[in-house]
Prior knowledge:
Layout (H helix, E strand, L loop, with lengths): L1 H22 L5 H11 L4 E6 L8 E6 L5 E6 L5 E5 L5 H7 L1
Antiparallel strand pairs: 1-2, 2-3, 3-4
Amino acid sequence: MFLAVGxxxxxxxxxxxxLTVATGFRVSPNVQLDAALAAAPGASFYSYRLPExxxxxxxxxxxxxxxxxxxxxxxxxxxxxGSLRPEDxxxxxxxxx
Length: 97
């Protein structure tokens, strides 16, 4: 029994390592969140949108101290790629027209 459990643990560890090698280096969601919060001082965490495909950026939705919201896009490597206020999206602008 012990060997079976140990074998399963080793299999999953190797599978995880192989996936990381195949898809490129990836930091944890916590590291991505820290990067987003560092890019928006005073902001508070609201939500995290999982990347749709391997290599896509995560979207982290933050509440700003001024009351507005901010979507911060963070690469799988933990680099902030950009940010956008949700009300500045073209779809929201069209709704106002």
